[in-house]
Amino acid sequence: MSRDALVVGISTYQYPKLNKLEAPAKDAEDIAQCLESSLLPFQVKRLPEIVDKENNRLKVGKKTEVSLTQLKQELFKLFKPKGSVITDTGLFYFSGHGLYDQLTEEGYLATSDANPDQGNWGFPLHTLRKLLQDSPVRQQIIWLDCCHSGSLIVLNEANPGKDPDHSRCFIAASRDIEVAYQLVSGSHGVLTDALLEGLDPNRVSGEWIDTLSLSAFVSQYLQKVHPTYPQKPLFINDGQVINLIRTQEKQESESKSDPPPPKTTVGLENIAEIPVWVGRDALIQELKAKLLAPETAPKVLAIIGQGGIGKTSLGVKLLESLGVQLQPPNLTETCVYEKVLYFKVYPGTSFDDVAEFLLRGLDMETVEPLKTPEEKIRNVLEGLTKQRGVVVLDNLEDILHPGSATNPGKALSGEWGQLLNRFVYGNHCSTIMLTSREFPVDLADPRARTGNPDPKLVELLTLVGVSDEAGVEILRLRGSADSEADQQWIAERVKGNTFLLAQLAAIGLESPGYLRQHPELVAEEAEPILQAQLMRQSEAARDLLRQMCVLRTGIDIPGLTFLRLYTDDKEKDDRFGTAVKLEKPGKFTKAELKETAEIVRHLVNSSLVQSRYDKERCEWFYDLHRLIVEYLQTAYQAELPQLMERVYKFYCTGKTVENPKTLEDLRPLLEAQYFAFQLGNYDEASSLLMGKIEKYLEPWGYWSLLKNLCEQILPYITDDTNKRICLQSIGIIYRETGNWDKAEKYFGKSLDSAREHNNKSGIAASLRLLGDIARYRGKWDEAEKHFRQSLEIETELDDRAGMASSWILLGYIAESRGKWDEAEKLYQQYLEVMTELDDRAGIASSRASLGYIEKCRGNWDKAEKLYQQCLDLRTELGDRAGMAWSWGQLGDIARYRGNWDKAEELYRKALNLRTELGDRPGMASSWGVLGDIARNRGKWDEAEKLYRQSLDLRTELGDRAGMAETWASLGENELGKGNLDTAEQYLTEALADMENLKMTWHIAETNFDLAKLWRQRGNEEIAQKHYEKSHQLYEKLGAMKDLERIERDWRETGFLI
Hints:
The structure is a single chain. Helices cover 54% and strands 10% of the residues. By secondary structure, the chain is of the alpha/beta class. Among the domains are: 3-245, Rossmann fold, CATH 3.40.50; 264-462, P-loop containing nucleotide triphosphate hydrolases (Rossmann fold); 468-535; 538-654, Arc Repressor Mutant, subunit A. The strands form six sheets. Strands 1, 2, 5, 6, 7, 8, 9 and 11 form an eight-stranded mixed sheet that branches. Helix 39 runs antiparallel to helix 40.
C-alpha cells in the first residue's frame, strides 16, 4: 500500500507585511520525520527541501523560499498525478502564513512570493478543495496550521465535503476568520504541537494511530490549552478511518504492557484434506512474496479458474506456506498474521451468513446485534484493521451471477457486492483471498472504464492446469497402477485438471490399463470419468451419493444414515416417521452407523466425497465436490423432488431448536424451510418462517435475511393470517429503516388482504400501521382518521389490547398538537390496560409517553423519573430502539437543566445505537438535538452541519414535522450568528409549515425567536406581537417553565409589557 506525503513549512516571506516565522520549518520537519518513522512509512516530499550536510539527509529549509508555482506543482503531483501510478494515501501538511481577501472573501495559503498588493495572495483554498474533490487518491489527509500574521484565513474553504468514494481527514488550526497561534516558546504552532503529541507512537506502542483517534487527541489537547491559546480548530472525518502511524511493540524490559493477543484461526477445520500436492510450488512462492511485500502487498488475492482446476488446494497450500498449520489448526511463530479465517460459500449463502462468521471470527461481536449491512461491514473492516489477518472466501461463484447471465460475476445481492468492494477500497491491513470460477466484478471500481480492479489492490490470478510432468506425479502418488506411458498419455489428455487426475487415478488403481482401452473417459470434461467412477461403486454407495447431491451443507454419519435408510413405510420401520413427528433426531444402531461409515470411507478413498472435522462439535462432516454435485443433479434431475423430500424429512427431525444463539444453531430450521419451499410446500415454509424463524432473526438483527425470506415466500402464501403477518413484517422492516414509501405499500397490501377476507382484527391492525406512516410524515389528520377507524373496529370486537394500542397512537397525535391534557388521558387509559394484561413492553411505552407530557409542562423531576422507569424496563426486555429513545429524552432533561456535557453524552449514546439499528428517523432526531448542544455552546458551524444532516435525512424521509423543526433550528442558528435576513427567511418558512401541521409548542417557540429577531432590528412593535403570540400559546399549553424562560429573556433584553 503506497502512502505519500507533501510536508510544507514556509518561514521566509518577501512581502514586508508578512513577518518571517520561526516555527513552520521546524513544524514541517518534525512532522516529516514522524511520518517516516512508522512501520508502514510515508514517502515524504519536503518543501522547501535542502540537504542537511551535518546529518547527511534532507530537511525542511528555514531560509529557503517556496513559490506559488512550486507549491501548486507539488500539490497536483500528489493529488492529481499524470500517468497510472496513483498513491493509495495522500497527506498534505502546511505550516506558514494564511491570508484572507476581505473583498472576495477567499482564503489562501501564503507562499514566499505572495504579495496581496500585486494580486498574488498565494494558493487559493477553493482550488485545494476542487483538487481534492477531483482527485483519484482515495484516502486524503489535510492538516493546515496557518499562523496568525495580521491577516486571517477561512480554512473551512478547503474542506471538500462528503464523498462516498473517498475517505478524508481534515484538521485545520482555526475556523472561519479566527486566529491560529504559535506556542509562547515559538518552537511549534499550537496545532502542530498537538499533532506531534498525538502521533507519538509511544502513547500506544504497537497499535495504529488512526485519523479518528488523532482527531480526538488533538481536540482534547486544544481544550486543555484553550485558556492560553483560544483557537477553535476544525475537524472533519468522512468515510473510513485511515491508519497513520504504527511502531513495533516495546520489549518486555522496556514496557509492562499486556502481551499481544494470541494468534487464532477460525474455520480451518472445515477445509477438506488435500492428500496430494504437486506442481505449483514455484507459484506458491511467487504469491507468498507478493502477499508479504512490505509496501506493495495487495488487499485481495482473487484465484479464478474452471471447476476442478485446484483453486481451493492452491489457496490452502498458500496458507501453509505463510505459517498456517491445518491439523490441528494453528499459526506458527513464523506466521506474520495474527488471525486466519476460512469460509466456504454454498448456494444460497446470504450476506448475513458471512457477516456473522466474520464478526465472530474477528472478535467484533457486539453485546446487541448489528442491524444494517453498513454497520456489519464497518465492524468487519474495523476487525480487519485491529489485527493483520487473512480471510479466505472459497467457492465465491455461488453468490455471483453465472457466466451465462447478462451481468456475469456480479454479486447476487447488493450487500454481498458492497462487502467485496469494501474489501478492496475500505481501510484495513489484512489480506482477503477469494476463489471463484467467475471473476467478481464488484472488486472493480465502478467508475473504471475497463471494469478491471486496481492491480495495486487486487492480485488477479487466472489458474491453469498443472504441467504434464506434475500430472504424471499426481497419478503416481494417487496410486495409479497404469504404465508410465499411459500415465503420460492421461496427463496430456486432461491438461492438468487436478480433479480429473484424482478420478482417473482411482480407476487406474483398481484396473490398470482400463483407461487406455476406454480413451473416451480420458478427456477434459468431467462427465465421462464420473460416470465410470459411479458404475464402479456399490449400489449402496451410489444411492448415498444420490441423496447427498441436494444437500447445501455438510452432514455427519448419523445424518447420512438417516438418508441411507429412510423409508416412509411405517410398517417396515416407524423410526423415521416418529422422529419427523417429534422433530427429534432419529436413533440408529451401532451396526447401522458402522455400515454408513464404511460406505463413506470407501467414497472418500475414491475421491468422490470430501471430509472435514468440526472441532467445536467434535464430529466429522461430509460433502461433495462442486463438480460432482453438478454431475449428479444433472444425472438424477427427474428424481430431485424425491431426493429433496427425503432431505427435508431429515431436517424436520431438527426443527426443535433449544435456545439457539447463532445462525448455525438455527441451521436445521433454515434448511427445513428452504427445502419445504423448494418442494412447493408453501404453507409449511411460511409457517416455519413466520412461526419460528422470524422470532430469532428479527432480534438478532438479520433484517436483510428475514426480508429476503419473507419476500420470497409471500407470493405463495395462501393462509390469510400468515400472508398478513408476512406483509406486515416486511413493512415493519422498511419502516424501521426509514423507507416509509415501501412500508406504506406493504401495509396497504395487508389492509387489502384483511378486507378481502373480512378479517376485522387484521383490518384494525393494518389501519394502525398505515396511520403510523402518516404520523411519521406529519400528516396528523390522516393518521388520526386511521387510528379512530381502528379504534372503532376494536371496540366492536371488544379487543382491549387493540383498543389500548389505538389510544396511545391517538395520544401521540394530541401530544403533537399541544393538547397535553387529552394526550395524558389517553396514555393513562393505555397504561391501565397494559397493567391489567401484564404487558411490560406496553407499560414501558406508557411511562415514556407520560414522561414526555411532564417534560413539556416543565415538570422535569417527574419526567426524569418516568423516563428512567421506562429505560429500566426496556433494558430488561432488550428493546434497543426503546432504550435509544429513552436516552434521548433523558438527554433533553439534562439539557434543560443546563448540563450540556451530560446531555451530549446521552444524545451520542442514543445516536450510536440508532445508527447500529439503522433507525434513520431516530438518527435524524439525534443529529438535531446534538446541533442544539453545539448552538448553545456557540459552535455555529458545527451546529449547522448537524442540522443540515438532520434536514437532508428528514427531507428524504418526507418527515414534514421534522423538516419544519429543523428549519426553525437553522433559523435560530443564523440568529445567533447575527445573520438576521437569513434567520428571518428560515424561521418564517418553518412557522408556516408548523401552523399547517398545528405544531402548537413549536409555533410558540418560533414566534419567540422572531420576536428576538425583530427586537434586534429595532422594530419593537412587530417584536412585541410575536412575543405576545408566543406567550399566549405557552400559557394555553400550561408550559410553565417555557413561560418563565421567555418572560425572563424578554425582560433582560428589553422591557416586558
